[in-house]
C-alpha cells in the first residue's frame, strides 16, 4: 500500500493586500513555513509520494529566499516529490523552478507535454507537465494514454475540466476517462472538490492549503491518499490551514449588536480572519460598526464589521409629517422604493441616517 499526499496552490509571496502591512508580512512568513509544516506531516505519517499540482508560488517573480525555503522544506521530506508548475509559477527563465537548485528527491516537470518518471520500487509511473507561460490553451492531456504495461500510472497537472474558455490547460472528461491513469492530481481550483471518476480514473482538486481572502472561506488543506497494488484509490481530506477566513451574518433586529455577535461566534476565533455582516432592522442611528470592531478586535487575528442593516419601518412612518423631516423622508423613501438593487438601497439608507442625524444635530461618526 503506497501512501501519498496531493496538494496545490500554495501561492507563496501573495500580497495579502487587504491586511495591514505588518499582518501581510506575517502572513507571507507563515506561507513560507507551510512547506516545513508539510514536511513534518509527510515524515511523521510515513508518506511515500507527494504530488504538488502547481501555483506553489504566486508568480514567477517570487523572492529567491522563498524558493530556497521551499527547496529546503522539500529536501526534508522522506518521500518522492513531483511538481507540475501552474499558470502563476510557470516554468521558464527567471522562474524559481529554474533559478533554485532543487533536491534530488524532487522532480519538476518542465515541458507542456506529458512526460513520465518510473518508480520501479512501487511498480508506479508518475506523469506530468508544466505551464511554460501564463496561459496554456492546448490541453496537456489531449492525446495522452498511459501504456498498458502492468504498472500503476498517476498524473499531476494544473488545469480546468470542461472550462468555458481555453486558457488554463483545458481538460475534457473524455480525455481523463481515456488516459489510463489510476489517479489524476489536479490544481488550479482553490475550493476543494470531492473525488470524481471518469472511466476508471479518479481525480480531484484539494483546493488551496491556506485561504488568502474572503473568497476562500473555511477549512483548507490537502488530500492524503492510498494506492493499493491493484490500483484502488482512497482519499481523506486533511485540514491544515493555520488561519481560516470566515463570513458570519448576524441579525441584530431588536437586540444589542455586540451581544448578538458574541452569541453567534464560535468559541475559538483568535487565529482566524472574520468578516461580520450585521443584518436586520435598526433605529435611525444604525450600528456603530467601527466601535464594534474596536471592542471585538482582540478576539480575532483580523476583523471587519459591515453594517448591512435596514431602517426600521416605524422610522419611515414619520414621512407623513408636515415638516422638513417628513419632506426629507418622503423624498428618500421614493428613491428607496425605486432603487434598482440592494447596493443602491444601502446607499440611500446611509443617506437617511446621516440626514436625520444632521436634522437632529446628532453625531453619527
How would you describe the overall organization of this protein?
The radius of gyration is 26 Å and the shape is elongated. The chain has helices at residues 21-44, 64-76, 96-99, 173-178, 257-264, 289-296, 313-316, 324-338, 342-359, and strands at 2-7, 49-52, 80-83, 106-108, 115-119, 124-128, 152-158, 160-161, 170-171, 183-187, 196-198, 201-204, 221-227, 233-239, 245-251, 273-279, 281-282, 302-307, 310-311. Strand 3 (80-83), helix 3 (96-99) and strand 4 (106-108) form a beta-alpha-beta unit. The strands form 5 sheets. It has a 6-stranded mixed beta sheet, with no helix packed on it. A 6-stranded mixed beta sheet has the order 5-6-7-10-12-11. The mean pLDDT is 93. It has 2 domains: 2-239, Purple Acid Phosphatase, chain A, domain 2 (4-Layer Sandwich), CATH 3.60.21.10; 245-359, no CATH class. Helix 1 (21-44) packs parallel to helix 2 (64-76) and helix 8 runs antiparallel to helix 9. By secondary structure, it is an alpha/beta fold. Keywords: Hydrolase. This is Nuclease SbcCD subunit D. It comes from Pusillibacter faecalis.
Number of domains: 2
The helix tally amounts to: 9
| Helix-strand makeup class | alpha/beta
Sequence of secondary-structure elements: EHEHEHEEEEEEHEEEEEEHEEHEEHHH
**Main pleated sheet:** 6 strands, mixed
Pfam families: Metallophos
Keywords: Hydrolase
GO molecular function, one term: hydrolase activity
Domain Calcineurin-like phosphoesterase: 2-191
